[in-house]
Amino acid sequence: PSRLDIRNVSKHYVVNGQQRLDVLSAIDLSVEPGAFVSIVGPSGCGKSTLLRLIAGLDGDYRGDILLHGERVAGTSLSRGIVFQDHRLLPWLTLEDNIALSLENAGWNKAKRAEAIRSHIALVGLTGFEKAYPHQLSGGMAQRGAIARGLVGQPEILLLDEPLGALDALTRLRLQEELQRIWRVEGVTMILVTHDVDEAIFLSDKVVVMNAGPGRIVREFDVGIPRPRE
Ligand code: ADP
Ligand code: ADP
């Protein structure tokens, strides 16, 4: 089964070396291949933490996170991630930032170059290959981050409030971009947002979390058919 299965996942942090903070409790979630799932909930309910676990950025949790039935461990090309801040390295050009994600891909030079070119084109940044992050607008930098997340052809793209820092018009444009990219790339999308309208507009499933400790309280199928191109 080529889907993501999150089974009975719980997580706590230890704050100040002693105080236990339970952030996730008994999270169960299955994500079908090619789905667009949004996770919404109040600030601090553990959305980012859950995404970091799925990304393999933190292996310290209880329960299972399975991709193709195998426990995810460490970061991997099978999952790309985009954060609220673009996190492009300021001393590298756009194309070099994107190239960095392919360092461990084991691809030859021609395949890497083609993947970088096509993903810069995918997000509409052709012509900005040699630009440094400070030369890009906020929306462009976020497009660059999306290209970097997708360049390794991940099965799942994890998006942590990717549009949260953008002005309203740029956000609207990028929402449409994300939907188009989802359609053409066939990638599974998991989006964390506190914007319920954004979640409903973009996804076919909305998962609602609550705090104290973070748990899933509702799952909605949005039910709007969105045929792929
Ligand atoms: P959300 O993304 O829903 O806002 P987070 O997953 O970022 O929630 O955080 C959940 C809770 O865990 C918050 O109370 C936050 O302050 C706390 N937290 C997040 N990361 C850490 C960390 N590395 N160490 C300790 N506490 C953390
Ligand atoms: P987001 O808006 O994506 O949820 P946060 O502002 O909650 O991000 O967290 C930013 C970073 O700080 C994350 O790496 C998170 O793990 C860490 N962090 C958040 N809350 C705490 C905390 N209470 N103690 C230590 N680290 C934290």
Supply database-style keywords:
alpha/beta, nucleotide-binding, 4-stranded antiparallel beta sheet, binds adenosine-5'-diphosphate
Structural commentary:
- There is one protein chain.
- Helices cover 30% and strands 28% of the residues.
- It has six helices and ten strands, in the order βββαβββαααβαβαββ.
- The longest helix is centred in the last third of the chain and has 18 residues.
- The site of one adenosine-5'-diphosphate has 12 residues, from β1, β2 and α1.
- Belongs to the ABC transporter superfamily.
- Pfam families: ABC_tran (PF00005).
- This is ABC transporter-like protein.
- Keywords: ATP-binding, Cell membrane, Membrane, Nucleotide-binding, Transport.
Q: Can I get a quick summary?
A:
Belongs to the ABC transporter superfamily. The protein has helices at 47-55, 94-100, 109-122, 138-150, 168-185, 196-202, and strands spanning 4-15, 19-31, 36-40, 62-67, 70-71, 79-82, 156-160, 188-192, 205-210, 215-221.
